[in-house]
Design a protein that fits this description.
heterodimer; A: alpha+beta; Uridine Diphospho-n-acetylenolpyruvylglucosamine Reductase, domain 2; Uridine Diphospho-n-acetylenolpyruvylglucosamine Reductase, domain 3; Alpha-Beta Plaits; 4 domains; 7-stranded antiparallel β-sheet; 5-stranded antiparallel β-sheet; 17 helices; 18 strands; globular; B: alpha+beta; 13 helices; about 30% helix; binds flavin-adenine dinucleotide
């Protein structure tokens, strides 16, 4: 059906010559104040990876522009000398999206961190990309407003990174992802074009570039300003914790709550290893012997929260919860959330290393997929802990391993790849919120056909004809896919024949 | 209920070989938005009307996957049987609107501020691009960041990028209780009231000011709806006709000449010309606004202006054109929307 492409829509950028680097460096020195250009190895070291620390590479140089003019100058120099540009926010990304290129400029946006405008009347704020996610809510808290998407990394991660990854968080079940909570963007393309997209009062342009930029992982341009939507802080919040003897009971409750017409503010699940790790770490009062717990947050006007809490409690009872705790006070709620929020570092204490996965599946497959992940865990001889956004079906299995034990990292990676294949087979996706980066290039080959991948490449080329914006990320090349032999096959035949489809 | 995917794919391939431009249409309920008075390039109609049916519906997952020729009216019935609905309330235009047209036009109804826009509900698409390739993007799950978000890009693209075969949409539970109030208010007071609500959580799912009346729809848990209704006062309305009249453009206002609508930062003060204020202030309608300010999303040829001028500054229009070429390099689809030689 699809014909052979006449030419590769976007050939990889040519290797950067030493002469080009030398010229570019001289120009960068002239264009930037001294403290905005880092070149010495000890200065570059902190930037050698993002949150996916297993994949490192030293950047050629790091630039930290403070102004749009400086940023524009950097892009121009890079384009003219054919130097790749890797944008970086706070570097908390978990898929290697901000992993440097040894030949490229690492473009750190952390110094562009001002809140430019808070428009209380329109419930919106205009911020620079380096502003931390939580800083927005903190800045508007006194007005009873907040910015809804709340990745667990929110004290550190930047709004520019959130846009680039279309990040989610605990409250995205009810309030949506980044794409549903930004109103406008200012973007600078490599060609130096400034695109003003949307704003506090706009209907989108004819093609919805705002939606396209969300989740584009820095491949299309640099986000230089973000208009975020602010929401009123709900007058009432309640958190319920339910403990179940088995994962099935918890998973059944998730499907039932949503199937019966309630969309809680948050609905999170933890399995036994995650519960025990969290309990040992922060003593949140979780029932340590439970097979699974659910944390359900309800918010709204008091009468609504009462009605919803009653419904949720009924579902918990129906699905065999042994214990339900209800937190009405802010302190109690903070205690219940504490274990969930500390779960990653808590699990991190169980083994020298962990590998955080991020697939999404239909909620109805939760119990089945978790059981299969348990099976894989035995097969690979590596423990796994699950703590995740159950309401969205967004799994975060944490695979425990020891990078110093020969072969364990490779085993962990194969285990992870099998989990992602399970997610695709269940009708889901290889990444729910952490992005593809470099980490999930191979699984992308299983999720998309050659024609789809080429469509992505043509789309990128429309914004970045030189192919210098974050090259080698997010979209695998066809040759890579055919090398790993994991090419997508239409018609339900999967690239992983050893895994049954269900 | 028929799957015409293969036939449509074939039709696109043939048209491509012959260099024959195609105009994509469902029932044509919105053709007044797109059709030029005179066709410059002679395009062939490519109709989705027989490509119908719900492919997959999982109420527990809040997702439905539908062939694009399916009537919105029929989809609404299917969803209602499970106590669900489309949150973005697309106009059905005399009951003829199709799912494909709703997504392609990106037009949303009264509930948009509370329940999201069309693109907020799009989770996945299956489409045919201008190279005659059948492509699948997104999926049926709420969170999915694998690859560029090509599916949400289709909302409001008016078929410029390709023919949509199937779309997966997020659906919402119908509220347990719903109630409509009408309060007597001037435009200024009504607008001030709407802005106050925007700052306070309330079970308000829609609000609109028209003819000195502020209409409010409350949706949610029964107790919350009743409590808020008591606090707001006003007259209770026994049916929801006002909202369907607003959504489907059945209200008399929509038959007036020169009707024009503007999207504004919602807190912008009402002007003397505003005749209908909705979306908590973000969308205003008038028949006598000074010509240049507004635009006429429901006027003949609207989509042509929008697609050609890109809605933004010149730079944006350039990138829109490149994006179009990335999907449809030979400009096979809907030339009347993008061709520069068609009078706008
Ligand atoms: C402990 C922990 C918990 C986490 N929890 C969550 C969670 O709950 N939900 C979730 O979604 N994610 C989570 N993450 C992942 C990560 O925090 C998010 O992906 C976050 O949005 C990344 O933001 P950042 O500023 O660190 O971006 P970086 O990691 O610096 O960059 C991420 C990507 O964005 C690009 N980029 C950054 N800034 C710009 C810009 N201005 N313009 C263009 N491109 C840009 C980069 O090139 C890169 O591809 C977690 C990470 C950690 C370490």
């Amino acid at each position: 059906m699809s014909e052979a492409p006449e030419q590769n829509p976007q050939p990889p950028p040519a290797a950067v010559t030493d002469a080009a680097k030398k010229q570019a460096l001289a120009r960068l020195r002239r264009a930037l104040p001294r403290e905005s250009l880092l070149t010495r190895p000890e200065q570059l070291k902190p930037y050698e990876s993002d949150g996916l620390t297993a994949l490192r590479e030293m950047p050629w140089v790091v630039v930290l522009p403070e102004t749009e003019d400086a940023l524009r100058a950097v892009l121009e120099i890079c384009r003219e000398h054919g130097i790749p540009v890797v944008p970086r926010g706070a570097g908390t990304g978990l898929s290697g999206g901000a992993r440097p290129s040894g030949d490229g400029v690492l473009l750190g946006l952390s110094k562009m961190n001002r809140i430019l405008e808070v428009d209380l009347d329109n419930c919106a704020a205009r911020v620079q990309p380096g502003v931390r996610n939580l800083a927005i809510s903190e800045a508007v808290a006194e007005h009873g407003l907040y910015y809804a998407p709340d990745p667990s990394s929110q004290i550190a991660c930047s709004i520019g990174g959130n846009v680039a990854e279309n990040s989610g968080g605990v409250h995205c079940l009810k309030y949506g992802l980044t794409v549903n909570n930004v109103l406008g963007l200012k973007v600078l393309t490599l060609a130096g074009d400034e695109l003003l997209i949307g704003g506090p009062g706009g209907d989108p342009e004819s093609l919805d570039l705002l939606a396209l930029f969300c989740g584009s992982e820095g491949l299309l341009g640099v986000v230089t300003e973000v208009w975020v939507r602010l929401l009123p802080v709900p007058p009432e919040r309640r958190v319920l914790l339910a403990a179940f003897p088995t994962v099935e009971g918890a998973a059944g409750s998730v499907a039932a709550i949503i199937g019966r017409g309630l969309i809680p503010a948050g609905l999170e699940m933890m399995d036994t290893p995650a519960i025990q790790a969290a309990e040992a770490f922060v003593h949140a009062g979780y029932p340590a012997n439970a097979g699974a717990i659910l944390l359900c947050e309800l918010d709204g006007v008091p009468a609504e929260v009462d009605a919803d809490a009653e419904m949720v409690s009924r579902v918990f009872a129906e699905f065999g919860a042994d214990e339900v705790q209800v937190a009405t006070s802010t302190e109690e709620q903070a205690r219940l959330w504490l274990g969930r929020k500390a779960a990653f570092p808590a699990v991190g204490r169980l083994a020298p290393d962990y590998y955080c996965m991020d697939g999404t599946i239909p909620r109805a497959s939760l119990a089945e997929v978790l059981t299969r992940i348990g099976g894989l865990s035995e097969r690979y001889g590596l423990a796994v802990a699950n703590v995740f956004h159950a309401g969205d079906g967004n799994l975060h299995p944490l695979i425990l391993y020891d990078a110093n034990a020969p072969g364990e990292l490779e085993r962990a990676e194969r285990f992870g790849a099998d989990i992602l294949a399970l997610c695709v087979a269940a009708g889901g996706t290889v990444t729910g919120e952490h992005g593809v980066g470099v980490e999930k290039l191979d699984p992308m080959c299983g999720q998309f056909s050659a024609a789809e991948l080429e469509q992505f490449a043509r789309l990128k080329a429309a914004f970045d004809p030189d192919g210098l914006m974050n090259p080698g990320k997010a979209i695998p090349t066809l040759s890579r896919c055919s090398e790993i032999g994991g090419m997508h096959v239409h018609g339900g035949r999967l690239p992983f024949p050893n895994l049954e489809r269900f | 209920m028929a799957d015409l995917g293969e036939e449509l794919l074939q039709a696109v391939a043939t048209a491509r070989d012959q260099g024959q431009p195609l105009s994509i249409a469902g029932t044509g309920s919105k053709s007044f938005l797109t059709r030029p008075e005179t066709a410059v390039r002679d395009s062939r109609l490519l109709s989705t009307v027989e490509h119908t049916g719900v492919v997959d519906y999982r109420p527990d997952e809040l997702v439905v996957t539908v062939r694009t020729g399916t009537l919105l009216r029929e989809l609404a019935q299917t969803l209602a049987r499970e106590g669900q609905m489309l949150g973005f309330e697309p106009p059905e235009f005399r009951g003829l609107g199709t799912v494909g047209g709703a997504v392609a036009s990106g037009l949303a109804g009264p509930g948009r501020p509370a329940r999201g826009s069309v693109r907020d509900a799009v989770l996945g698409v299956q489409m045919i691009n201008g190279l005659g390739e059948r492509l699948v993007f997104g999926g049926q799950v709420m969170k999915n960041v694998a690859g560029f978000d090509v599916s949400r890009l289709q909302a409001g693209a008016y078929g410029m990028l390709g023919l949509l075969l199937e779309v997966s949409l997020k659906v919402l539970p119908r509220p347990q209780a719903e109630l409509t109030l009408r309060l007597e208010k001037s435009a200024t007071d009504a607008h001030a009231e709407m802005r106050r609500w925007a700052r306070l959580p309330h079970p308000i799912s829609a609000a609109a000011w028209l003819e000195e009346g502020l209409w409010v729809r409350l949706s949610g848990a029964e107790a919350a709806v009743n409590q808020t209704a008591a606090a707001l006062g006003g007259e209770h309305q026994t049916d929801n006709d006002f909202w369907s009249g607003l959504k489907d453009h059945g209200l008399p206002l929509f038959r007036r000449d020169g009707l024009c609508c503007r999207h504004l930062p919602p807190a912008s003060a009402p002007s003397a010309e505003d005749e209908l204020i909705e979306w908590l202030g973000a969308r205003r309608w008038s028949t006598s606004a000074p010509g240049a300010v507004g635009y006429q999303p429901f006027a003949a040829g609207f989509a042509r202006h929008r697609c050609r001028d890109g809605g933004g500054d010149g730079k944006i229009a350039d990138y829109q054109a490149r994006l179009k070429a990335a999907f449809d390099p030979d400009s096979l689809f809907n030339p009347e929307l993008t061709d520069a030689d068609v009078p706008a």
